[in-house]
């Protein structure tokens, strides 16, 4: 199956007279529409997705701003698959990478946590004093991060939220990141397992902050000329993009060049000094600022990066999706299908193998397109509970998809024939230089032995000569020392005799 990168976007109507928005998939290279899911009006941070795989179909969740309804879409249908009635209207939602848990925040600062496969409401608690603006799961799904209008960012351990022994207690966050002074607008989680990961948070206070979760500390503060509404972080954590409502997108590199002690330029990491480390973006010269600034000309509502981090996708409040080349900041193309609406969500993903109207022949689907659900079953979603139910929680009945049996048996590594084993063993332990019994090799070996014996004889002869020279030198030196000593002794005796005669 050919891999094709696509853009999934969610749009919402700015005016009630325009109608409802859509969730659409576009081809990244051409911008053509591949599929469209209607009857939704999701705003920023109100869309969550689970990508499809070759064995399980994914889904799209959108919460509506004017009603307590959650729409569920599957890629195999262009209509709403399920409408879930919620306890109250949600201001943001998030789904973990496996699609097992769904979290929703409200305007009153409350957070709900459901299990998608059973619909069980595991927890609901007052997490913030004001509206929850954004929710994010870490890559491993072990932590939930929430940002609010109260300028606080809380990190919640999912295992503690699911613990049955703590259901009657108010959840306590793993840590609270409280260095922002105005409402938090966006959160991006870095790579790594919780808590060994980092966070980027943006706020209306013109700052973007980089946090280390393991040490619960602030690493660096980036101060921008305008307030920041959304972020996009490279997967390698080399750089990030920060967008302002006025249409400015700033590229911030997390590395820089400096002069080496030995001459030349070397690269070094940027920031990491702590609370006092503040990097002001407006302090660069005009040339550097132009290289890192993209002027969209329209209010920016969301950002996303391509899978290879070579393209930047910018969604605007006027319904346009601009695609920029990151190295050159050149505008490659603009998707204007949703003009007149506001783009609330953007992401890039591989084209779902079970996408309606694009079912691959590799799945051997029959003549009827509806057969796709039999080949790629969808991730089960049960309507969410509106109140916590201890009995349902104890029963905990979950619908799970069993993997499809493989028709062709896998190769068993333990099934190793004895004959084949001995043959392979002989091949690996055989000497590097194979021995031959031909007459040519025997004569060559004999001549080599004779040559070595002659060389040994010559070395012995040279050793004898050297020993003779050494003995001669030794004898000469000893004789010279003995003669010199005798002469010195006779001279001393004559002097002593002369002294005695003088006394007499």
TrEMBL record:
**Positions in coiled-coil regions:** 442-469
> Where does the record say this protein resides?
Nucleus
* Keywords for the protein's UniProt record, in alphabetical order: Coiled coil, Nucleus, Repeat, rRNA processing, WD repeat
Q: Where are the WD repeats?
A: 125-159, 199-221
Chief subcellular site? Answer: nucleus
Q: Which residues form the signal peptide?
A: none
State any GO CC term: rixosome complex
TM annotation in the entry: none
BP GO terms, sorted? DNA-templated DNA replication; rRNA processing
Q: Which Gene3D superfamilies does the annotation name?
A: YVTN repeat-like/Quinoprotein amine dehydrogenase
Q: Which family does it belong to?
A: Belongs to the WD repeat IPI3/WDR18 family.
Binding partners and assembly: Component of the RIX1 complex, composed of IPI1, RIX1/IPI2 and IPI3 in a 1:2:2 stoichiometry. The complex interacts (via RIX1) with MDN1 (via its hexameric AAA ATPase ring) and the pre-60S ribosome particles.
Give the protein's function: Component of the RIX1 complex required for processing of ITS2 sequences from 35S pre-rRNA.
What is the protein's name according to its record? Pre-rRNA-processing protein IPI3
Q: Which organism is it from?
A: Laccaria bicolor (strain S238N-H82 / ATCC MYA-4686)
Organism ancestry: Eukaryota, Fungi, Dikarya, Basidiomycota, Agaricomycotina
């Amino acid at each position: 199956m050919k891999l094709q990168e696509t853009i999934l976007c969610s749009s919402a109507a700015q005016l009630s007279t325009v109608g409802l928005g859509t969730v659409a998939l576009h081809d990244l290279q051409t911008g053509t529409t591949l599929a469209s899911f209607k009857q939704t009006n999701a705003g920023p941070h109100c869309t969550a997705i689970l990508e499809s795989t070759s064995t399980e179909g994914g889904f799209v969740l959108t919460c509506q701003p004017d009603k307590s309804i959650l729409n569920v879409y599957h890629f195999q249908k262009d209509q709403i698959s399920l409408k879930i009635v919620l306890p109250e209207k949600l201001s943001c939602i998030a789904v973990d990478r496996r699609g097992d848990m769904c979290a929703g925040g409200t305007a009153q600062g409350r957070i709900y946590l459901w299990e998608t496969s059973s619909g069980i409401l595991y927890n609901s608690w007052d997490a913030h004093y004001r509206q929850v603006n954004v929710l994010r799961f870490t890559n491993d799904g072990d932590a939930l991060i929430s940002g609010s209008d109260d300028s606080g960012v809380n990190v919640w351990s999912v295992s503690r939220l699911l613990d049955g022994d703590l259901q009657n207690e108010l959840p306590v966050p793993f840590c609270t990141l409280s260095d922002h002074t105005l409402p938090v607008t966006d959160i991006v989680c870095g790579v790594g397992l919780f808590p060994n990961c980092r966070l980027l948070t943006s706020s209306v206070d013109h700052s973007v902050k980089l946090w280390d979760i393991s040490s619960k500390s602030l690493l660096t503060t980036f101060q921008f000329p305008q307030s920041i509404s959304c972020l996009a972080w490279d997967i390698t954590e080399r750089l990030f993009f920060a967008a302002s409502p006025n249409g400015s997108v700033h590229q911030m590199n997390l590395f820089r060049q400096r002069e080496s002690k030995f001459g030349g330029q070397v690269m070094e990491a940027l920031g990491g000094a702590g609370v006092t480390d503040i990097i002001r973006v407006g302090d660069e010269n005009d040339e550097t600022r132009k290289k890192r600034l993209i002027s969209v000309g329209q209010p920016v509502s969301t950002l996303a990066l391509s899978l290879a981090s070579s393209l930047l996708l910018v969604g605007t409040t006027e319904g346009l999706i601009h695609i920029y080349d990151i190295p050159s900041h050149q505008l490659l193309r603009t998707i204007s299908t949703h003009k007149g609406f506001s783009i609330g969500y953007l992401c890039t993903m591989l084209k779902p193998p079970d996408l309606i109207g694009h079912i691959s022949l590799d799945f051997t689907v029959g003549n009827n397109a509806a057969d796709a659900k039999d080949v790629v079953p969808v991730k089960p979603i049960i309507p969410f509970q509106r109140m916590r139910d201890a009995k349902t929680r104890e029963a905990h009945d979950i619908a799970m998809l069993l993997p499809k049996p493989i028709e062709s048996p896998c190769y068993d590594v333990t099934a190793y024939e004895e004959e084949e084993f001995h043959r392979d063993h002989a091949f690996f332990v055989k000497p590097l230089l194979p021995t031959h019994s031909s007459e040519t090799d025997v004569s060559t070996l004999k001549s080599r032995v004779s040559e070595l014996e002659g060389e040994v004889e010559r070395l012995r002869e040279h050793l004898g000569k050297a020993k003779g020279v050494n003995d001669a030198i030794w004898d000469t030196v000893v004789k010279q020392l003995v003669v010199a000593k005798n002469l010195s002794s006779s001279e001393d005796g004559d002097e002593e005799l002369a002294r005695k005669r003088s006394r007499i």
